[in-house]
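Task card 7
Instruction: Convert sequence to structure tokens.
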Amino acid sequence: MTISEKVAYIQGLYDGLGLDEKKSGEARILSEVLDVLREVGQQLEGMDAAMDQFDEELDTLEDTVSELEDAVFDDEDEEDEESCGFGGEDGEDFFEIPCPTCGEDLLVDDEALAAGVVDCPVCGGKFALSFEDGEDGADSDE
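Output:
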């Protein structure tokens, strides 16, 4: 039962008593209290309606934000896949090459490429990088 329905029930009880507001002070007070309760009930119903509308708008906004997140982050995922999953946070590129000693695939960054030497963390071996013939870091025998 809503507040307005409860107030209407109490109003019915009040009316059933047949109290005369002009003769009884208590009847007048009860009548005024019922009027206040009726106004409070109406305001609460208005607030409930506004809250329902806010909930609907919030759901719509949530759906919109979710769609935007999907669009933005899906694009980033596609970019990551296009770069083969390699790349640093600052735009630094990584390259995958096999260690000539143990065969383990290593990620080599720009800094190691510039130094020309890579230390394998798996076997501890060191090897020089050379891209003269364009094959897997092996030196060319021209």
